[in-house]
Structure formats: structure tokens, C-alpha cells
Design goal:
The two termini are 39 Å apart. By secondary structure, the protein is an alpha/beta fold. The chain is built from 14 helices and eight strands. The chain binds S-adenosylmethionine.
């Protein structure tokens, strides 16, 4: 796979990552300490914070909060759009990347549908501040892949998380037909086809540039048990009861609640009775500061459905559609992460499970 090899780009991105680590490990805990102090005073005055809005009222005017919020917004902007950002660096390699994407593929590994309509909820925002989103530019999959390497800056191995999630799903699943909804450039799909060569894995997404990279990547690894289809997860066109497991990773929070409900209903349709639906996503604890931080992240990172997703009752929605044994599980993306909650900024990783 073509990688940007440019010392100025590398130095600039390393500098931004250093700033992000400072923001994660130094500014966040200071802000949390400030919040605790103010929340304590408010409680003594008989008005303890109960909701995210109460935490906002305590913190929004604080210079430390403003610094935190500014860095969250603009470090991400610089990462993508600054002079040595991801987009211009990949623009300089456009010809090479497009040639790699055009390389012949084994039959059946990739099926694109140019007539597929990109949903308005998705096209109307440049998600993650990625210029043009991850669907409109042929090289967007590469830009996204490089960007995703530092999405979770505390993790040394950016890929560990997906393998860990796959291990959890593999422990629980009873069949081998797996559907990965919103598979992106295939990072969440890869552990399923690589860990178990008997698994039959389908990755679907609406973003053709990502699917093309996923397919090239799988073909380069000589994978024989995966295919990538350009489909909307709300209307996959796949046969009824054709899968044992439906998963997604970081997709749900990118959809408005009515679309989430449709995706769950579609999962129910394509699952075999007894099959599992398992999503890895973000649900913060029901605590004002954590929720305020999480909702702010959604606003600052151009992820407008993050907050509505948390406010919808995901479990009740699933039960209403007929899922049984519905549960949410805190997901420890790396050892010690849950015990250290609140000490450093982290995504509130949560596994959402239901059985047909
Ligand atoms: C944050 S990305 C996660 C990608 C991948 N699962 C991973 O973990 O790297 C969310 C993905 O959901 C996809 N997506 C959003 N809405 C979708 C829909 N209605 N149908 C299929 N994919 C969708 C996006 O195109 C994007 O690739």
C-alpha cells in the first residue's frame, strides 16, 4: 500500500500527535479536576450538576475549557487540512494511489454500485473534518486510513482495538457467516477474515473509495473468504436469514437515530434465528462531565449524531425490534483503560449486543 514518505509531513504529523497527547494526558485531567472542584462547590450550595448542560454551565467560560476545546477542534483540522495535512500530502500522490486502486482484483471480491445514493445525513457533513468526507474523492480511503492511525493516540498499536473486538465476537458467535456493516477501508473486517479462514465475511459500506482500498488490501493478502459490497446498511439487498453475525465498529454514532433503527431492523432481517448483532460504539457513563465532554467532541469533530445516539435508548430500540438478551458492555480497548477512566481523555467504548 502506498504510504506518504515525506519528512516534513511526518514531522508535522508527529508534532500534532505530540500536542494531542498533551491534550489527552495533561489538559484533560486538569479540566476534570477543575470540574470536580466547581461541582463540589455547586453541590455545597444545593445545586449539584445532574446533566451535561449543568457541566457546560460550570465550565464553558473557563479559559482552560476554551483551550481544551480549541485544541480539540483545530488539531484535527491541522491534521487533515494544514499545509502538511493528510489531504494535501495524499493529493501529491494522487496518480500513484489511483493506479494502485485500479489494479485488477480477483473476481467477486468487490462489487460497487455507482447508482447507490449517499444518504443526505452522511453527505451533508465532512465527517471527522475530512475534506469532502470519506466518500466523494477516489483517494479518500487512503486519507482516512492514514488518519485512523492516530485516532486513538494512547494506543501504540492502532490496530489492536479491532482485533480485540473480533475476539469478543468470535467467543460468542455460533456460525461463520459474518456481515460487517460500515466496514470503511476494511480495518474492522480484516480480523474476521484473517483470524478464521473458514469464516465467510462480507463488508458493506456506502463509501466506494474506502471499499476499493479494503478490497485491494484483502487481495494483496490473498484472502479468499471476504467480499466487499457497496450497500446501504439500512437496505442491504442481502437475503433474509443469510448471516449468523452482524457487526459494526464506530458506525452507529455516525447515523441519526431513525437511520440507526433502520440498520438494526435490517440486521434483524438478515440474521438467522439465534444470530447475534454486535456493535462497537461510544456510550459515555451517565455522568454530567463525561457526557458534556463526549457531546462536545461530537460538535468539534463534525460528528453531529454522536449526541442524539447517546440520548436515544439503544437497548429499548433493539428490544422493540425483537432482539433478546440485549446488553451493553464497557469495552476495555487496552489494559487498565477502564480503571483510569477520567484520568485521560478516551472514547467511551461500548459493545452493544442483541440476539435474534
Ligand atoms: C467511523 S467509520 C468506521 C469504519 C470501520 N468500521 C472501522 O472501524 O474502521 C463508519 C463507517 O460507516 C459507514 N456508513 C455510514 N452510514 C452507512 C450506511 N447507511 N450504510 C453503510 N455504511 C455506512 C461510513 O461510510 C464509514 O465508513
Amino acid at each position: 500500500m502506498i504510504n506518504v514518505r515525506d519528512r516534513q509531513f511526518e514531522a508535522y504529523q508527529a508534532f500534532l500527535l505530540g500536542c494531542k497527547l498533551h491534550w489527552t494526558g495533561r489538559i484533560f485531567p486538569e479540566l476534570h479536576a477543575l470540574y470536580r472542584e466547581k461541582a463540589g462547590r455547586a453541590a455545597n450550595a444545593g445545586t449539584p450538576p445532574r446533566e451535561a448542560e449543568d457541566a457546560a454551565a460550570l465550565l464553558e467560560g473557563e479559559p482552560l475549557y476554551r483551550q481544551f476545546a480549541w485544541l480539540e477542534r483545530h488539531l484535527q483540522r491541522f491534521k487533515y487540512s494544514g499545509r502538511w495535512g493528510l489531504q494535501p500530502a495524499h493529493d501529491r500522490l494522487r496518480g500513484e494511489i489511483e493506479a494502485e486502486l485500479d489494479a485488477p482484483l480477483p473476481p467477486g471480491i468487490l462489487e460497487l454500485d455507482p447508482s447507490l445514493e449517499v444518504p443526505t445525513y452522511f453527505a451533508s457533513v465532512d465527517i471527522h473534518q475530512h475534506p469532502g468526507g470519506i466518500w466523494s474523492d477516489p483517494i479518500a480511503g487512503y486519507v482516512y486510513e492514514r488518519g485512523a492511525r492516530s485516532t486513538t493516540p494512547l494506543m501504540q498499536q492502532h490496530k489492536d482495538l479491532h482485533w480485540k473486538f473480533t475476539a469478543l465476537v468470535n467467543e460468542r458467535r455460533r456460525g461463520r457467516r459474518i456481515l460487517d456493516m460500515g466496514c470503511g477501508f476494511g480495518k474492522s473486517t480484516r480480523p474476521f477474515w484473517a483470524e478464521d479462514r473458514d469464516a465467510q465475511v462480507t463488508g458493506i459500506d456506502i463509501a466506494a473509495p474506502c471499499l476499493r482500498l479494503a478490497a485491494q488490501d484483502a487481495a494483496a493478502a490473498q484472502a479468499r473468504n471476504v467480499r466487499f459490497l457497496q450497500r446501504d446498511c439500512r437496505r442491504t439487498g442481502l437475503p433474509d436469514a443469510s448471516h449468523d453475525v452482524v457487526t459494526s465498529t464506530m458506525m452507529i454514532h455516525e447515523m441519526p437515530p431513525p437511520a440507526i433503527r433502520e440498520a438494526f431492523a435490517e440486521a434483524m432481517r438478515v440474521l438467522e434465528p439465534g444470530g447475534l448483532m454486535v456493535h462497537l460504539d461510544f456510550i459515555p457513563p451517565d455522568e454530567p462531565f463525561m457526557r458534556f465532554m463526549h457531546f462536545g467532541h461530537g460538535r468539534r469533530n463534525n460528528e453531529p449524531y454522536m449526541e442524539p445516539m447517546v440520548r436515544m435508548d439503544v437497548k429499548e430500540t433493539m428490544r422493540g425490534l425483537g432482539f433478546r438478551n440485549v446488553e451493553t458492555i464497557d469495552f476495555e480497548e487496552m489494559p487498565g483503560a477502564l480503571a483510569a477512566r477520567g484520568e485521560r481523555w478516551r472514547f467511551p467504548w461500548t459493545v452493544i449486543v442483541g440476539e435474534k
